[in-house]
Amino acid sequence: MPLSLTNHVALVTGGSRGIGRAICQALDAEGARIIVHYHRDLAAAEESASTLQSPATLVHADLGSTDSITRMVGSLDEDSLDILVNNAGVWKPTPLGSTSEALLDEVLHINLRGMFWLTQALLTKLRDGARIVNISSTAGRVGIAGGRSLYGATKAAVDSLTKSWALELAGRRIRVNAVAPGYVETDMTAAHLSDPATRERALIRHPLGRLGTGEDVAKVVTFLCTDAAAFITGQSLNVSGGFVI
Ligand SMILES: NC(=O)c1ccc[n+]([C@@H]2O[C@H](COP(=O)([O-])OP(=O)(O)OC[C@H]3O[C@@H](n4cnc5c(N)ncnc54)[C@H](OP(=O)(O)O)[C@@H]3O)[C@@H](O)[C@H]2O)c1
Question: Residue 102: inside a domain, yes or no?
């Protein structure tokens, strides 16, 4: 059973930093050629690409803008993609009572609308038998305090898209799965976890006794992209040290 991803081309959104960078590195280590997507941070995307064994391509898009996504897809040289990892996202507070319409749109557009539009725009480039992995969150499965209800709702929607896309694309043997991390130490959570009391509360919610790493998530994404997961589709796997069981 071929478990290597040699000769596979993988587009990773938000591959510039954090979990996305770890996913680029893990797929690259299995032999895939990586297209690193970024939004604002070109330097981080270049740094991410420089850590890979195979030469990578960089692509830019604001996932909050359908025009920007359409332009990025139009600029791709590759006609046949093997792997799409929908990883990019934002974790902005949207407290009920003080959230502006602009912020509501921003979170919805980047985390949900962008993922839908990009996947749709890439459908003709994804080869039959391709794999899609969406990065969800345990926040989509439980109530969350702290004014991030909309974030949780977008991630619950990502799990829902994953199930329905698995059915919609099964005829082309495209497998669609999701990975749902708990707390992972990245730029996204750095400020939040810098408060010792908040960090302690987060730790307590992870029965395995530590917070997650990008590598924890990336290993499972890679597994889902290989033929070891050839009969797995429509699933969302918690990678959260027991945060949600
Ligand atoms: N960290 C956690 O604890 C955790 C837990 C559960 C789920 N997740 C999910 O895991 C994914 C990655 O999170 P992370 O912790 O690695 O976050 P991160 O370090 O903040 O990185 C976010 C990535 O998303 C990209 N991005 C942000 N806004 C964008 C936009 N408008 N258009 C396109 N790309 C955009 C960024 O690109 P630039 O750098 O170029 O701006 C960056 O590559 C997210 O979907 C997140 O919700 C994270």
Answer: yes
* Residue 165 belongs to domain with CATH number: 3.40.50.720
pLDDT, residue 6, reads 96
Helix (H, G, I), strand (E, B) or coil at 191: helix
The reply to whether 183 belongs to the active site is: no
Our count of domains for the chain comes to 1
pLDDT by residue (tens digit) across 183-211?
Answer: 999 999 999 999 999 999 999 999 999 99
Q: Give the per-residue pLDDT at 145.
A: 86
Confidence of residue 3 (pLDDT cuts 50, 70, 90): low
Coil/strand/helix, residue 55: coil
Q: Among 60, 162, 184, 217, name the best residue to mutate to test ligand 1's pocket (greatest count of ligand atoms within 8 A of Cβ).
A: 184
pTM, to two decimals = 0.98
- Give 233 Cα–ligand 1 centroid separation in angstroms: 24
**Of 117, 151, 165, 183, which residue is the catalytic one?**
151
Select from 11, 13, 17, 183 the residue to mutate for testing ligand 1; criterion: most ligand atoms less than 8 Å from CB. Answer: 17
Q: Which residues of 74-102 are buried (b: 16+ CB within 10 A; e: fewer)?
A: eebeeeebbbbbbbbbbbbebeeeebeee
Please give the residue range of the domain that contains residue 81: 9-239
Q: Pick from 225, 239, 237: which is nearest to 81 by CA?
A: 225
Closest residue CA from atom 17 of ligand 1: 188
Query: Considering the domain boundaries, does residue 4 fall inside one?
Result: no
